[in-house]
# Entry
Amino acid sequence: MTTEQFIRTLLDWLLADPSHLVTAASALAALTPTPPTDSVAGKLYKIVDILALNFLHAKEAGAPSTGTPPTMPPPAAVALAATLAACTGQTPAATLFETRAAYDATVLAPLVQYHALAPCPVTSGMCKDPDVDRHLILADTDAKVALDAAEDMIRFHPGTDPTALVQDAQNAVTAVQTILINHGVK
# Structure
């Protein structure tokens, strides 16, 4: 997939549903350190926060940074969240929303950054292994298909129980996260 194809696919995804824009803005806001409010980046960040619905008391502003980047939650965390959701009687739609948010926040950014790296030469620094990249692309495609299938079931077949499809989506997201963790992609 070329950069142009990726950007087109990303734009198509964003325009397909207004909730995708909120999800993408939320992921961007979560993964980006808060810049000073008087800078140009700070003003752009304010727009991202509004698109992410991070206003009023939805987000603490100006919290001091610890200097360490956020780490990806382990795949077990997604499975635990799903189990807790099931125990608390959370609807499959809410569970799917949380799964998609976890996917957007913990998979998309590292995946895009890894995919953008140059292939590894004989001696390497920051580079991507073509085999790992291929596995990531396949796992990411599986996750997207599973998430979309569960979302379609919830939207267009409200009388049908989507629990199995939501579980498939969670498993697919966990699979991508596991590949990212196993290969140290951050």
Observations:
- The two ends are 21 Å apart (CA to CA).
